[in-house]
Write a structure and sequence with these properties.
Elements (H helix, E strand, L loop, with lengths): L3 H13 L2 H8 L3 H15 L4 E3 L4 E3 L1 H25 L5 E8 L4 H13 L4 E8 L1 H9 L5 E6 L7 E14 L9 E2 L9 E4 L5 H10 L6 E5 L2 H9 L5 E4 L7 E6 L5 E8 L4 H4 L2 H20 L5
Parallel strand pairs: 3-4, 3-5, 7-11, 8-9
Antiparallel strand pairs: 1-2, 5-12, 6-10, 6-11, 6-12
Helix pairs in contact: 1-2, 1-3, 1-4, 2-3, 5-10
Amino acid sequence: MIDRYLLRYLLAVVDKGSFTKAAAHCGVSQPTLSAGIAKLEAEVGAALLLRSNRRVELTGLGVRWVERARRIEREFTLGEQEARLPDAQSTLRLGVVSSLPSTWMEEALRAARLGGRPYRIEIVEASEKLLLERLDRGRLDVLLSVVRGARSRFSDVIFEEGYGLVLPSDHPLAQKQNIDAEEVADSQMIVRRHCEALSATSGHFTARGVRPFMSARTTNDNQALGYVRAGHGLTVMPDCFADEDIAMARLSGFDLRREIGFVHDRIPEERRHSEALTAIRDTLLERHAKLRQAFPHLA
Protein backbone atom coordinates (compact mmCIF):
# COMPACT_ATOMS: atom_id res chain seq x y z
CA MET A 1 0.00 0.00 0.00
CA ILE A 2 1.31 3.44 -0.95
CA ASP A 3 1.45 5.92 1.92
CA ARG A 4 -0.45 9.16 1.51
CA TYR A 5 2.54 11.32 2.38
CA LEU A 6 4.38 10.00 -0.70
CA LEU A 7 1.58 11.24 -2.94
CA ARG A 8 1.73 14.60 -1.18
CA TYR A 9 5.45 14.78 -1.89
CA LEU A 10 4.79 14.11 -5.59
CA LEU A 11 2.08 16.78 -5.80
CA ALA A 12 4.28 19.29 -4.01
CA VAL A 13 7.12 18.78 -6.51
CA VAL A 14 4.73 19.26 -9.42
CA ASP A 15 2.98 22.31 -7.92
CA LYS A 16 6.13 24.05 -6.68
CA GLY A 17 8.39 23.15 -9.61
CA SER A 18 11.45 22.05 -7.63
CA PHE A 19 12.51 19.67 -4.88
CA THR A 20 13.76 22.55 -2.73
CA LYS A 21 10.46 24.45 -2.78
CA ALA A 22 8.48 21.23 -2.40
CA ALA A 23 10.46 20.23 0.69
CA ALA A 24 9.85 23.63 2.29
CA HIS A 25 6.14 23.38 1.48
CA CYS A 26 5.92 19.92 3.09
CA GLY A 27 7.99 20.94 6.12
CA VAL A 28 10.72 18.34 5.54
CA SER A 29 14.33 18.42 4.43
CA GLN A 30 15.18 18.03 0.76
CA PRO A 31 16.93 14.65 1.31
CA THR A 32 13.81 13.39 3.10
CA LEU A 33 11.58 14.47 0.22
CA SER A 34 13.97 13.00 -2.37
CA ALA A 35 14.00 9.71 -0.50
CA GLY A 36 10.20 9.74 -0.42
CA ILE A 37 9.96 10.27 -4.18
CA ALA A 38 12.48 7.46 -4.73
CA LYS A 39 10.40 5.18 -2.49
CA LEU A 40 7.24 6.04 -4.43
CA GLU A 41 8.94 5.29 -7.75
CA ALA A 42 10.22 1.99 -6.36
CA GLU A 43 6.72 0.99 -5.28
CA VAL A 44 5.28 2.02 -8.65
CA GLY A 45 8.08 0.24 -10.48
CA ALA A 46 9.04 3.05 -12.85
CA ALA A 47 10.27 6.65 -12.91
CA LEU A 48 7.65 9.35 -12.40
CA LEU A 49 9.94 12.37 -12.68
CA LEU A 50 12.75 13.38 -15.02
CA ARG A 51 15.30 15.42 -13.09
CA SER A 52 17.74 17.99 -14.48
CA ASN A 53 19.70 20.92 -13.09
CA ARG A 54 17.11 23.43 -14.28
CA ARG A 55 13.73 21.77 -13.93
CA VAL A 56 11.70 18.72 -13.05
CA GLU A 57 9.44 17.10 -15.65
CA LEU A 58 6.85 14.35 -15.42
CA THR A 59 7.16 11.13 -17.36
CA GLY A 60 4.08 9.82 -19.14
CA LEU A 61 3.42 7.54 -16.19
CA GLY A 62 4.06 10.46 -13.86
CA VAL A 63 1.28 12.49 -15.50
CA ARG A 64 -1.19 9.68 -14.87
CA TRP A 65 -0.04 9.25 -11.29
CA VAL A 66 -0.42 12.97 -10.58
CA GLU A 67 -4.05 12.77 -11.74
CA ARG A 68 -4.63 9.80 -9.43
CA ALA A 69 -2.86 11.52 -6.55
CA ARG A 70 -5.04 14.63 -6.88
CA ARG A 71 -8.21 12.54 -6.83
CA ILE A 72 -7.03 10.60 -3.79
CA GLU A 73 -6.01 13.78 -1.96
CA ARG A 74 -9.38 15.37 -2.72
CA GLU A 75 -11.22 12.39 -1.26
CA PHE A 76 -9.02 12.41 1.84
CA THR A 77 -9.62 16.14 2.33
CA LEU A 78 -13.36 15.76 1.89
CA GLY A 79 -13.48 12.83 4.30
CA GLU A 80 -11.52 14.75 6.93
CA GLN A 81 -13.83 17.75 6.63
CA GLU A 82 -16.97 15.64 6.92
CA ALA A 83 -15.55 13.83 9.95
CA ARG A 84 -15.06 17.16 11.74
CA LEU A 85 -18.66 18.26 11.24
CA PRO A 86 -20.85 18.14 14.37
CA ASP A 87 -23.69 16.41 12.52
CA ALA A 88 -24.43 14.54 9.33
CA GLN A 89 -24.70 17.75 7.32
CA SER A 90 -21.76 18.17 4.92
CA THR A 91 -20.35 21.27 3.27
CA LEU A 92 -20.40 21.95 -0.47
CA ARG A 93 -17.42 24.14 -1.33
CA LEU A 94 -18.50 26.33 -4.24
CA GLY A 95 -16.06 28.51 -6.14
CA VAL A 96 -17.68 31.49 -7.89
CA VAL A 97 -15.91 33.38 -10.67
CA SER A 98 -15.70 37.06 -9.79
CA SER A 99 -17.04 38.22 -13.18
CA LEU A 100 -20.70 37.40 -12.42
CA PRO A 101 -23.16 40.13 -11.33
CA SER A 102 -23.66 40.36 -7.58
CA THR A 103 -27.42 40.77 -8.11
CA TRP A 104 -27.61 37.48 -9.98
CA MET A 105 -25.65 35.69 -7.27
CA GLU A 106 -27.77 37.25 -4.53
CA GLU A 107 -30.94 35.89 -6.09
CA ALA A 108 -29.37 32.50 -6.84
CA LEU A 109 -28.09 32.02 -3.30
CA ARG A 110 -31.42 33.03 -1.83
CA ALA A 111 -33.01 30.25 -3.89
CA ALA A 112 -30.27 27.82 -2.86
CA ARG A 113 -30.81 28.60 0.81
CA LEU A 114 -34.45 27.61 0.52
CA GLY A 115 -33.62 24.36 -1.22
CA GLY A 116 -30.11 23.70 -0.02
CA ARG A 117 -30.46 20.78 2.35
CA PRO A 118 -28.60 18.62 3.19
CA TYR A 119 -25.55 20.69 2.17
CA ARG A 120 -24.14 23.83 3.67
CA ILE A 121 -22.53 26.02 1.02
CA GLU A 122 -19.11 27.56 1.51
CA ILE A 123 -18.43 30.19 -1.17
CA VAL A 124 -14.99 31.16 -2.41
CA GLU A 125 -14.88 34.02 -4.93
CA ALA A 126 -11.83 34.41 -7.14
CA SER A 127 -10.62 34.65 -10.72
CA GLU A 128 -11.10 31.74 -13.10
CA LYS A 129 -7.41 30.81 -12.85
CA LEU A 130 -7.30 30.72 -9.06
CA LEU A 131 -10.54 28.75 -8.84
CA LEU A 132 -9.21 26.08 -11.20
CA GLU A 133 -6.03 25.78 -9.14
CA ARG A 134 -8.06 25.25 -5.97
CA LEU A 135 -10.29 22.71 -7.69
CA ASP A 136 -7.24 20.76 -8.85
CA ARG A 137 -5.85 20.73 -5.31
CA GLY A 138 -9.10 19.48 -3.81
CA ARG A 139 -9.92 22.70 -1.98
CA LEU A 140 -13.19 23.20 -3.87
CA ASP A 141 -15.88 20.73 -4.90
CA VAL A 142 -17.46 22.56 -7.81
CA LEU A 143 -17.04 25.90 -9.59
CA LEU A 144 -19.60 28.29 -11.00
CA SER A 145 -17.29 29.65 -13.63
CA VAL A 146 -16.31 29.90 -17.28
CA VAL A 147 -16.43 26.56 -19.10
CA ARG A 148 -13.74 26.05 -21.69
CA GLY A 149 -11.25 23.61 -23.20
CA ALA A 150 -10.54 20.30 -21.52
CA ARG A 151 -12.64 21.34 -18.54
CA SER A 152 -15.80 20.95 -20.62
CA ARG A 153 -15.52 17.19 -20.08
CA PHE A 154 -16.56 17.65 -16.46
CA SER A 155 -19.02 20.51 -16.66
CA ASP A 156 -22.69 21.44 -16.87
CA VAL A 157 -23.22 24.54 -19.01
CA ILE A 158 -25.96 26.89 -17.80
CA PHE A 159 -25.89 29.69 -20.40
CA GLU A 160 -23.77 31.29 -23.10
CA GLU A 161 -23.21 35.00 -23.68
CA GLY A 162 -21.09 37.56 -25.45
CA TYR A 163 -19.38 40.77 -24.34
CA GLY A 164 -20.57 44.33 -24.79
CA LEU A 165 -19.17 47.84 -24.65
CA VAL A 166 -20.65 49.60 -21.60
CA LEU A 167 -21.34 53.34 -21.79
CA PRO A 168 -23.12 55.93 -19.63
CA SER A 169 -26.79 56.24 -20.58
CA ASP A 170 -26.21 59.86 -21.66
CA HIS A 171 -23.21 59.09 -23.88
CA PRO A 172 -23.52 60.35 -27.50
CA LEU A 173 -23.23 56.73 -28.72
CA ALA A 174 -25.62 55.29 -26.13
CA GLN A 175 -28.40 54.62 -28.65
CA LYS A 176 -26.23 52.60 -31.03
CA GLN A 177 -26.40 48.81 -31.00
CA ASN A 178 -23.01 48.30 -32.68
CA ILE A 179 -19.96 50.49 -32.14
CA ASP A 180 -16.59 50.42 -33.89
CA ALA A 181 -13.46 50.62 -31.74
CA GLU A 182 -12.37 53.68 -33.71
CA GLU A 183 -15.51 55.54 -32.61
CA VAL A 184 -14.35 55.52 -28.98
CA ALA A 185 -10.68 56.21 -29.65
CA ASP A 186 -10.87 59.47 -27.71
CA SER A 187 -12.82 58.00 -24.79
CA GLN A 188 -11.41 57.01 -21.43
CA MET A 189 -11.46 53.30 -20.65
CA ILE A 190 -11.88 51.39 -17.39
CA VAL A 191 -9.82 48.21 -17.02
CA ARG A 192 -11.53 45.26 -15.31
CA ARG A 193 -8.34 43.52 -14.25
CA HIS A 194 -10.05 40.28 -13.20
CA CYS A 195 -11.86 39.75 -16.51
CA GLU A 196 -11.05 36.53 -18.38
CA ALA A 197 -11.42 38.47 -21.66
CA LEU A 198 -8.99 41.25 -20.74
CA SER A 199 -6.23 40.11 -23.08
CA ALA A 200 -8.62 39.66 -26.01
CA THR A 201 -10.23 43.04 -25.36
CA SER A 202 -6.88 44.81 -25.25
CA GLY A 203 -5.79 43.07 -28.44
CA HIS A 204 -8.98 44.10 -30.23
CA PHE A 205 -8.37 47.81 -29.61
CA THR A 206 -4.62 47.64 -30.23
CA ALA A 207 -5.08 45.85 -33.56
CA ARG A 208 -7.21 48.80 -34.70
CA GLY A 209 -4.72 51.40 -33.56
CA VAL A 210 -6.88 52.47 -30.63
CA ARG A 211 -4.96 53.12 -27.42
CA PRO A 212 -7.30 55.00 -25.08
CA PHE A 213 -6.36 56.55 -21.77
CA MET A 214 -6.98 54.11 -18.90
CA SER A 215 -8.91 56.18 -16.36
CA ALA A 216 -9.34 53.40 -13.76
CA ARG A 217 -8.26 49.86 -12.97
CA THR A 218 -10.43 47.72 -10.73
CA THR A 219 -11.24 44.13 -9.77
CA ASN A 220 -14.73 45.08 -8.58
CA ASP A 221 -17.51 45.04 -11.19
CA ASN A 222 -19.89 47.14 -9.09
CA GLN A 223 -17.16 49.75 -8.89
CA ALA A 224 -16.54 49.54 -12.63
CA LEU A 225 -20.24 50.14 -13.32
CA GLY A 226 -20.22 53.07 -10.92
CA TYR A 227 -17.32 54.62 -12.81
CA VAL A 228 -19.22 54.19 -16.08
CA ARG A 229 -22.42 55.74 -14.70
CA ALA A 230 -20.38 58.68 -13.41
CA GLY A 231 -19.00 59.29 -16.89
CA HIS A 232 -15.47 58.38 -15.86
CA GLY A 233 -14.98 56.01 -18.78
CA LEU A 234 -16.20 53.06 -20.83
CA THR A 235 -15.49 49.37 -20.35
CA VAL A 236 -16.14 45.93 -21.83
CA MET A 237 -18.23 43.50 -19.78
CA PRO A 238 -20.14 40.24 -20.24
CA ASP A 239 -23.75 40.62 -21.40
CA CYS A 240 -25.08 39.62 -17.97
CA PHE A 241 -24.21 43.10 -16.66
CA ALA A 242 -26.63 44.85 -19.04
CA ASP A 243 -29.02 47.09 -17.11
CA GLU A 244 -31.44 49.95 -17.66
CA ASP A 245 -29.21 52.57 -16.04
CA ILE A 246 -26.34 52.01 -18.49
CA ALA A 247 -26.02 51.48 -22.24
CA MET A 248 -24.47 48.33 -23.68
CA ALA A 249 -23.64 47.86 -27.35
CA ARG A 250 -21.89 45.23 -29.39
CA LEU A 251 -18.26 46.05 -30.16
CA SER A 252 -18.01 45.53 -33.92
CA GLY A 253 -15.72 42.62 -34.78
CA PHE A 254 -15.36 41.46 -31.18
CA ASP A 255 -17.10 38.09 -31.32
CA LEU A 256 -15.71 36.46 -28.19
CA ARG A 257 -18.29 34.51 -26.19
CA ARG A 258 -18.19 32.55 -22.96
CA GLU A 259 -20.11 29.68 -21.41
CA ILE A 260 -21.01 29.84 -17.72
CA GLY A 261 -21.69 26.64 -15.85
CA PHE A 262 -20.68 24.25 -13.11
CA VAL A 263 -17.14 22.90 -13.46
CA HIS A 264 -16.17 19.92 -11.32
CA ASP A 265 -13.87 16.92 -11.18
CA ARG A 266 -16.08 13.85 -11.02
CA ILE A 267 -17.91 14.80 -7.86
CA PRO A 268 -20.62 12.37 -6.71
CA GLU A 269 -23.91 12.56 -8.61
CA GLU A 270 -25.85 13.50 -5.48
CA ARG A 271 -23.71 16.62 -5.12
CA ARG A 272 -23.89 17.58 -8.80
CA HIS A 273 -27.67 17.34 -8.74
CA SER A 274 -28.25 18.64 -5.23
CA GLU A 275 -31.23 20.90 -4.60
CA ALA A 276 -28.91 23.81 -3.88
CA LEU A 277 -27.01 23.64 -7.19
CA THR A 278 -30.24 23.01 -9.07
CA ALA A 279 -31.74 26.15 -7.52
CA ILE A 280 -28.67 28.20 -8.50
CA ARG A 281 -28.76 26.87 -12.06
CA ASP A 282 -32.48 27.51 -12.50
CA THR A 283 -32.18 31.05 -11.13
CA LEU A 284 -29.32 31.94 -13.47
CA LEU A 285 -31.20 30.45 -16.42
CA GLU A 286 -34.21 32.60 -15.57
CA ARG A 287 -32.12 35.76 -15.21
CA HIS A 288 -30.40 35.07 -18.54
CA ALA A 289 -33.75 34.56 -20.29
CA LYS A 290 -35.10 37.84 -18.88
CA LEU A 291 -31.97 39.68 -20.00
CA ARG A 292 -32.34 38.43 -23.58
CA GLN A 293 -35.94 39.65 -23.62
CA ALA A 294 -35.05 43.07 -22.21
CA PHE A 295 -32.02 43.57 -24.50
CA PRO A 296 -32.75 41.69 -27.75
CA HIS A 297 -29.77 43.26 -29.54
CA LEU A 298 -27.52 41.25 -27.19
CA ALA A 299 -29.26 37.93 -27.90
